[in-house]
Write a structure and sequence with these properties.
Blueprint (H helix, E strand, L loop, with lengths): L5 E4 L1 E2 L11 E2 L1 H13 L3 E3 L1 H10 L7 E8 L3 H13 L4 E4 L23 H9 L3 E4 L12 H19 L5 E3 L7 H9 L4 E6 L12 E5 L6 H8 L13 H23 L2
Parallel strand pairs: 1-5, 1-10, 2-3, 4-5, 5-6, 6-7, 8-9, 9-10
Helix pairs in contact: 1-3, 1-7, 5-6
Length: 268
């Protein structure tokens, strides 16, 4: 059995907005990273392909790797897609539907600054073989929301994307990687076949399809680090079950979110 590097990208851009700069990779660096994947003899899979192999208990290809992108910035189409096509590598793009351009009735007030994909771009990406997955509607910390609010966020993103693409959307990614047993259950109940977390760990053999571990590629991620990940090493395996500090951090964030909701309702 093989531990799988599921790489998490956000932006491929020479001059990204400040809020995403540390999670952005320069186009030349990204192209070199894709070259390394080929040099290492890795076989790239989409999230759905990987999840399907996990679900069936089927053998993985030699040296598997999965490339994922979160949020839906326009630079995915402008910079990442040409490099992916040149390298003949598949990828999965998780889209925050409330950040899309061209849907004025859907755009959320807290959308970060920057150029975002629009529905026509999503259709083009889908036609070019990019798997489109959902990433909620407004990018909240799902595990701090009331259950029905979290359900609406998950379901709404799926419904909007399936309406735009006229095709099923079966993959999901938790904003910030935050999730828990209730949120995982909601993702399943909303009809997804898999969901990506973060964890900054290799996806271990038999990984939970609704808590897939990913490795964040940052502006300062080196080729040596990436090569180690592709070799199945260089990071600790994800813990079995939740760490106590993860539960404590969730409890803190829930309390903070509850206070904000009460202040909002009171108008203060």
């Amino acid at each position: 059995m093989t531990a799988v590097p599921i790489l998490l990208y956000h932006s491929v851009c020479d001059d990204p907005p400040s809020w995403i700069r540390r999670l952005s990779v320069a186009p030349a660096t990204f192209a070199r990273q894709l070259e390394l994947i080929h040099e290492q003899g890795a076989t790239a899979l989409s999230v759905s392909e990987y999840a399907s192999l996990l679900a069936g208990g089927d053998p993985l290809p030699q040296r598997p790797v999965v490339l994922t992108f979160d949020d839906g910035l326009a630079d995915f189409r402008e910079q990442a897609l040409p490099a992916l096509r040149s390298a003949a590598l598949p990828a999965t793009l998780f889209v925050t539907t409330g950040f899309l351009d061209g849907l004025p009735e859907e755009v959320v007030a807290g959308r970060p600054p920057g150029a975002w994909l629009d529905p026509a771009a999503l259709l083009d990406l889908c036609a070019q073989g990019i798997e489109i997955g959902a990433h909620t509607h407004s990018h909240p910390e799902l595990d701090t929301l009331p259950v029905e609010a979290a359900r609406r966020e998950i379901a709404r993103s799926k419904q909007i994307l399936e309406r735009l693409l006229a095709a099923p959307v079966s993959s999901f990614a938790y904003p910030y990687g935050y999730h828990g047993p209730v949120v995982r259950r909601l993702a399943q109940e909303c009809g997804f076949a898999s969901a990506c977390a973060v964890k900054n760990a290799l996806s271990p053999p038999g990984d939970d399809r609704f808590s897939l571990a990913r490795l964040t590629v940052r502006s300062d991620t080196t080729l040596a680090q990436l090569a180690a990940w592709l070799d199945g090493c260089g990071v600790l395996p994800p813990p079995r079950g939740e760490r106590a500090r993860t539960r404590a951090w969730r409890s803190y964030r829930r309390g903070r979110a509850s206070v904000r909701r009460r202040l909002h309702r009171s108008g203060t």
